[in-house]
């Protein structure tokens, strides 16, 4: 089984996702990066499920997909509201919580 | 077994060909076109519509090729040989012992429906080029329409129930998008939601049915056929093998039938269909003729062995499918009499015709029912497109027959002629196509011993003739009224929610041109609209000849090509690897000499894929009887319509107000048997209200009670603590620690920048460090 390749792909996706979350200023792009992270986790789960020949990983992956869909829904709702109030979706503008 | 196989002569392999082997391309093309339209449609010169039309044309060519090669395949088989479907299957996704396949199952049934769907979709798309010109969401409309057809095509050629479910749900989603195409109006989006949720109610049954069948059949199919329990071929063979537990297969059949009820708009879930008229007319036409509503009937026809065994079709006294079908025929035909909206009359007529198909399937008249799908698609699509043509060019986007139509036969000759042809086909007048299918259903229902249901069918035929005559009279005869008389119809149309009001959504140029049209008064529609009408009316006239039972055996082409032969099959090879589809089947030894046991007894040597069904002998006397009934219906309705709508006969006008019992009946019909009220006011409220009331009561009494007592307790406790502990012990400590915290806080303040990305970076680096620590510890 080519477990390594899958894990490598997942790691690469994860890193791209993390980079996106940290470096991007656009809230929508940040959400997309979070999706990448979640899906890299999915790939990991599926890889190990395939290796172990069990359905557990698949079940988890399905759950994650469902939760991710909900998360995007909420996230985009937040972005929309932020845009209405601030006329921007750059996350750097949202620093009211500065200590 | 081996001995037997050696004794019988191995027959030559059945003919096949490129179109049959690659039929899976038929739904793939629209699916790709959908993606392309969404991605680049807006930048194309025709806003993506050319992609839709081209993909449907490609599918049409492919399915016509597949139909042609299927006919060759049937001809290459001997008289009593089971014509193997062309099955190809690939593993889609495998998980813990479950194997979900994806593939094609091409037999007579799928070939017919594929051709009809591709054909009607092509014409509807061409028609939409003109009908929706200048619409705000023109590109999205074509994308959804293409995917809609793609979903139906995928469902039709699915080789297993998972792919079937996929196509089924794609259609559900697309119907939601298309019915709610003009969602700016509240009524339209509510209709879309209603359609979606009502169909979803039935879909629960499909899920339950599929999983029940899988768990019941999988062992048997794996062992005997090497197929998964999702495979349609496997399930069919299993159902007829005498193996299944009668309760299990009955419950599974009922669950699947509930899905059919939802999708095909059978009583009591038919309420969404008339409301689905809120969508643009081409959508109604596609939805009501070949896609979506036919899916439910197709499900029953596809898994016919399951229903045959599970619901005891051909048993005495009738079964669930027949009862539902018969009820649907009559109640929806009755509703069609009180509608003023031309599209709603057609909608109820569709519901009623679907009832005929269900009645036929339930009574063991499989072929007439499938043939009725075929003919009905043509004439119903033609009627809907005709209604659209009227509203587009004559009545200024109104569908109200009483207010905005009348006398249109002179100004719209093509629309009128095609409408009349399709109406006669719908009523089942002799040589029109509806006669050959509908009469055959009624005839076979009687022949299989269900006389009561045959009478219901004849009553339905009478009512069909009557309400269609009423609609025709109101639309095309009498004096022009309202918009079609040239009156400007700019008075608000809020009274009825389902007229196509896209003139208000188009951009301003378009709006102006529509006004210019209106000022010219009613006129015939353009060629893009009339050409599909003419093609469809030719088919409404002629398609019945494909199975013209009155002219003898040699005319029954459909029976030869489509009906699976109920022969016990001993397969020498089974579909093996991917793409494997050519294999030889050997009829068992006694076959030919004895009668087929399929459907009546347990097959001993092989497997059956279809139950043995009888066909009624055609008699002119029976046909004449139904003809007389139809003409009677037309005549009665014509006279009444003329007296009521043109002569304003004093004895008839206002009859429902004067005679109490008629008034009650009329109100009952106008309110659609109060079914909508039952669903929305009674069921939804009785479920939703008690839950919210109970939640409120729980909140007020229990939660609040607990909170009150806790707070009382806390107050007492805190009094004591304040006096003894707080004042003496704590205060001293606090003052010291506050000073300490303040200095720490000042030191840590810069990290609280308020910037999310910085927090993220901190979070991830902390996680990375933790991961590193974990790795070091573990190694």
Alpha plus pi helix count of chain A: 3
CATH topology type of one domain in chain A: Helix Hairpins
Low-confidence stretches of chain A: none
Major pleated sheet of chain B: 2 strands, antiparallel
Q: What would the principal axes of the Cα set say about the shape of chain A?
A: elongated
Strand content of chain A: under 5%
Helix content of chain A: over 70%
Can you tell me the CATH class of one domain in chain A? Mainly Alpha
Q: Span from first to last CA of chain A?
A: 51 Å
Helix content of chain B: 55-70%
Number of distinct beta strands of chain A: 0
Mean pLDDT of chain A: 87
Note the gap between the termini of chain B: 62 Å
Radius of gyration of chain A: 17 Å
Rg for CA atoms of chain B: 32 Å
Overall average pLDDT of chain B: 78
Figure out the total of helices of chain B.
Answer: 29
Question: What structural class do helix, strand and pairing data of chain A support?
Answer: mainly alpha
Order the strands across the largest sheet of chain B as they lie in space. Answer: 1-2
Strand content of chain B: under 5%
List keywords for this structure.
heterodimer, A: 99 residues, Helix Hairpins, elongated, B: mainly alpha, two-stranded antiparallel ribbon, disordered N terminus
Compose a concise summary of this entry.
Chain A is mainly α and 99 residues long. Chain A is built from three helices and no strands.
Write the topology of this structure.
The complex is a heterodimer of chains A (99) and B (779).
Chain A: H1 3-23, H2 27-52, H3 56-86
Helix pairs in contact in A: 1-2, 2-3
Chain B: H1 2-7, H2 18-21, H3 25-40, H4 49-76, E1 86-95, E2 98-106, H5 108-131, H6 138-157, H7 161-179, H8 186-224, H9 232-239, H10 246-263, H11 272-275, H12 281-289, H13 293-302, H14 304-310, H15 320-336, H16 342-362, H17 366-393, H18 401-404, H19 413-427, H20 433-447, H21 451-476, H22 508-520, H23 527-542, H24 557-562, E3 569-571, E4 585-587, H25 620-646, H26 655-658, H27 660-670, H28 675-748, H29 756-778
Antiparallel strand pairs in B: 1-2, 3-4
């Amino acid at each position: 089984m080519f477990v390594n390749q899958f894990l490598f792909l997942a790691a690469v996706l994860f890193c791209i996702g993390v980079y996106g979350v940290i470096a991007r200023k656009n809230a929508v792009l940040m959400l997309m990066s979070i999706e990448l992270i979640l899906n890299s986790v999915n790939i990991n789960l599926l890889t190990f499920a395939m290796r172990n020949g069990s359905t557990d990983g698949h079940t988890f992956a399905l759950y994650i997909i469902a939760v991710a869909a909900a998360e995007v829904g909420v996230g985009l709702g937040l972005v929309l509201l932020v845009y209405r109030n601030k006329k921007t979706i750059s996350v750097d503008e949202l620093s009211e919580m500065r200590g | 077994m081996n001995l037997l196989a050696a004794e019988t002569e191995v027959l030559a392999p059945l003919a096949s060909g490129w179109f049959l082997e690659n039929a899976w391309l038929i739904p793939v093309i629209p699916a790709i076109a959908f993606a392309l339209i969404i991605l680049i449609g807006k930048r194309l010169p025709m806003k993506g519509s050319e992609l839709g039309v081209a993909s449907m044309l490609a599918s049409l060519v492919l399915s016509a090729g597949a139909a042609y090669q299927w006919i060759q395949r049937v001809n290459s088989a001997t008289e009593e040989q089971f014509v193997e479907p062309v099955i190809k299957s690939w593993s889609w996704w495998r998980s813990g012992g479950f194997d979900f396949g994806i593939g094609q199952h091409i037999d007579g049934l799928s070939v017919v429906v594929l051709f009809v769907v591709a054909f009607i979709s092509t014409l509807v798309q061409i028609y939409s080029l003109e009908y929706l010109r200048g619409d705000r969401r023109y590109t999205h409309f074509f994308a959804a329409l293409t995917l809609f057809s793609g979903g139906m095509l995928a469902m039709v050629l699915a080789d297993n129930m998972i792919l079937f479910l996929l196509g089924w749900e794609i259609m559900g989603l697309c119907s939601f998008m298309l019915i709610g195409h003009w969602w700016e109006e509240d009524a339209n989006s509510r209709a879309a939601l209603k359609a979606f949720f009502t169909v979803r109610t039935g879909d629960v049954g499909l899920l339950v049915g599929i999983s029940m069948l899988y768990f019941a059949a999988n062992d048997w199919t794996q062992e005997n056929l090497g197929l998964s329990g999702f495979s349609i071929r496997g399930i069919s063979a299993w159902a007829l093998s005498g193996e299944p537990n009668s309760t299990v297969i009955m419950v599974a059949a009922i669950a699947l039938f509930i899905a059919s009820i939802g999708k095909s708009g059978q009583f009591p879930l038919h309420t969404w269909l008339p409301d689905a008229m809120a969508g643009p007319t081409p959508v109604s036409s596609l939805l009501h003729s070949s896609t979506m509503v036919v899916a439910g009937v197709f499900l029953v026809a596809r898994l016919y062995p399951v229903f045959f065994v599970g619901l005891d079709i051909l048993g005495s006294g009738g079964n669930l499918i027949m009862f539902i079908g018969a009820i649907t025929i009559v109640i929806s035909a009755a509703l069609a009499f009180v509608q003023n909206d031309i599209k709603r009359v057609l909608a109820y007529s569709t519901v009623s015709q679907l009832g005929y198909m269900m009645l036929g399937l339930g009574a063991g008249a499989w072929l007439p029912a499938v043939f009725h799908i075929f003919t009905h698609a043509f004439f119903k699509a033609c009627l809907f497109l005709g209604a659209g043509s009227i509203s587009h060019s004559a009545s200024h986007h109104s569908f109200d027959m009483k207010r905005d139509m009348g006398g249109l036969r002179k100004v719209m000759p093509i629309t009128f002629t095609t409408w009349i042809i399709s109406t006669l086909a719908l009523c089942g007048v002799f040589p029109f196509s509806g006669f050959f299918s509908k009469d055959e259903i009624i005839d076979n229902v009687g022949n299989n011993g269900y006389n009561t249901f045959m009478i219901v069918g004849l009553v339905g035929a009478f009512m069909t003739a009557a309400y269609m005559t009423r609609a025709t009279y109101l639309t095309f005869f009498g004096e022009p009224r309202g918009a079609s008389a040239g009156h400007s119809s700019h008075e608000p149309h809020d009274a009825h929610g389902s007229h196509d009001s896209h003139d208000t959504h188009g951009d301003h140029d378009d709006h102006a041109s529509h006004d210019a049209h209106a000022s010219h008064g009613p006129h015939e529609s353009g060629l893009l609209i009339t050409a599909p009408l003419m093609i469809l009316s030719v088919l409404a006239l002629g398609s019945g000849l494909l199975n013209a039972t009155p002219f003898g055996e040699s005319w029954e082409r459909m029976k030869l090509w489509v009906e699976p032969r109920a022969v016990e099959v001993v397969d020498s090879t089974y579909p093996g690897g991917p793409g494997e589809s050519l294999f030889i089947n050997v009829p068992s030894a006694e076959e030919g000499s004895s009668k087929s046991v399929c459907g009546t007894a347990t097959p001993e040597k092989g497997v059956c894929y279809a139950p043995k069904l009888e066909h009624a002998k055609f008699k002119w006397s029976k046909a004449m009887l139904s003809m007389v009934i139809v003409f009677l219906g037309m005549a009665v309705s014509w006279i009444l319509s003329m007296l009521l709508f043109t002569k304003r006969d004093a004895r008839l006008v206002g009859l429902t107000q004067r005679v109490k019992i008629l008034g009650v009946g009329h109100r009952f019909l106008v309110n659609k048997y109060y079914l909508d009220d039952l669903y929305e006011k009674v069921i939804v409220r009785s479920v939703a209200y008690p839950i919210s009331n109970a939640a409120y009561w729980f909140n007020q009494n229990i939660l609040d009670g607990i909170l009150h007592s806790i707070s009382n307790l806390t107050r007492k406790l805190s009094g004591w603590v304040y006096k003894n502990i707080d004042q003496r012990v704590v205060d001293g400590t606090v003052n010291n620690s506050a000073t300490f915290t303040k200095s720490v806080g000042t030191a840590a303040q810069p990290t609280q920048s308020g910037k999310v990305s910085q927090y993220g970076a901190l979070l991830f680096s902390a996680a990375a460090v933790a991961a590193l620590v974990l790795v070091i510890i573990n190694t």
